[in-house]
Write a structure and sequence with these properties.
By secondary structure, this protein is mostly helical. The chain contains 11 helices and no strands. Helix 7 packs antiparallel against helix 8 and helix 9 packs antiparallel against helix 10. The chain is elongated. The chain starts with a helix and ends in a 6-residue tail after the last helix.
């Protein structure tokens, strides 16, 4: 009975995550990479859970979780879930070079693991961390215990990414909520590593479902900054900048009379008055509708 409920839980998690990935892809916006990044990460999680579902359908209830490859895969997924908020907090900060740097711990640990196998290190099988702790003085166990500690670190990388209110697509409340949800995600996975039993696994997959729905809500609804609803006060520097730009716009408006320059001035005023750069749904089509023009012009 418990095994059937476990299988149904995994199946539900797969469906929820797959539909979430599809929704993010359908409602993607041009110029906003964060939504596509989250879509790809959730889809990777779906691919990761499919073998688990197939295994339990064939009677494999206790899949190995304390193997080094499984821990490396967990580190890869946690780092992947960190890429998304980084792109939200600082759009454009993620580049190919920084992606390589971000995933470098996975490559280093994988290379070190292969090297230990070449030197004849034999990794014993343990059901959970509790069974491994008595062997902490052995390299094969100490190495995996260190990996368990490393899993807790990536989520805090968000606090070290440069945050600017002007260019960020969210606010600090969103950042705190995402970090807290990420901590819950990591802690729930550590629960499985510590006590690898069916009830704990069921709790983990339910937490995964809730966190996926929370992230979907935060991406599609909460972090959208409406042009008419701005919760943060404009700082003094932004006020000074707005006054200066308004002066330039007025001065240019007196001198420049051709159609294209007038459109440019209107666009400047629209962007400044509405802080449109904070809207993750901003697109060329939306901007042309607001200005009453067309894409070609």
């Amino acid at each position: 009975m418990l095994e059937n409920f476990f299988m149904a839980t995994i199946y539900t998690a797969l469906v929820v995550m797959f539909l979430s990935s599809v929704m993010l892809f359908v409602f993607r916006k041009s110029g906003d990479r964060s939504r596509l990044i989250l879509c790809a990460i959730i889809f990777l999680s779906v691919c990761n859970y499919i073998p688990r579902l197939i295994g339990i359908m064939h009677g494999v209830t206790y899949a190995p979780v304390m193997t080094v490859p499984m821990l490396i895969l967990a580190l890869f997924m946690i780092l992947s879930y960190t890429v998304y908020p980084i792109e939200v907090v600082s759009p454009g900060w993620i580049s190919f070079k920084r992606i390589l740097m971000l995933y470098s711990p996975v490559a280093v640990i994988s290379g070190f693991y292969i090297l230990t196998l070449c030197f004849g290190v034999h990794y014993l099988k343990y059901a959970n961390v509790v069974d491994m702790i008595p062997h902490y003085n052995e390299f094969q166990a100490a190495f995996r215990l260190c990996l368990c500690l490393i899993l807790c670190l990536p989520i805090f990388l968000i606090f070290y990414i440069p945050y600017t209110r002007k260019y960020s697509n969210t606010d600090r409340t969103w950042i705190r909520v995402y970090v807290i949800s990420g901590i819950f995600d990591v802690v729930s996975y550590l629960m499985i590593l510590a006590y690898h039993v069916i009830p704990v696994s069921i709790i983990y997959f339910h937490i995964t479902i809730l966190l996926t729905m929370l992230r979907l809500y935060m991406e599609l609804k909460y972090r959208i900054v409406d042009k008419n609803v701005l919760n943060e006060e404009i700082v003094a520097s932004n006020r000074s900048q707005k006054v200066a730009i308004d002066g330039i716009i007025i001065q240019e408006g007196r001198v420049l009379e051709d159609v294209h320059n007038r459109l440019f001035i209107r666009m400047q005023r629209y962007l400044m008055d509405n802080q449109a750069w904070r809207n993750p749904n901003m697109s060329l089509s939306l901007l042309t509708n607001e200005l009453g023009t067309n894409r070609t012009t």
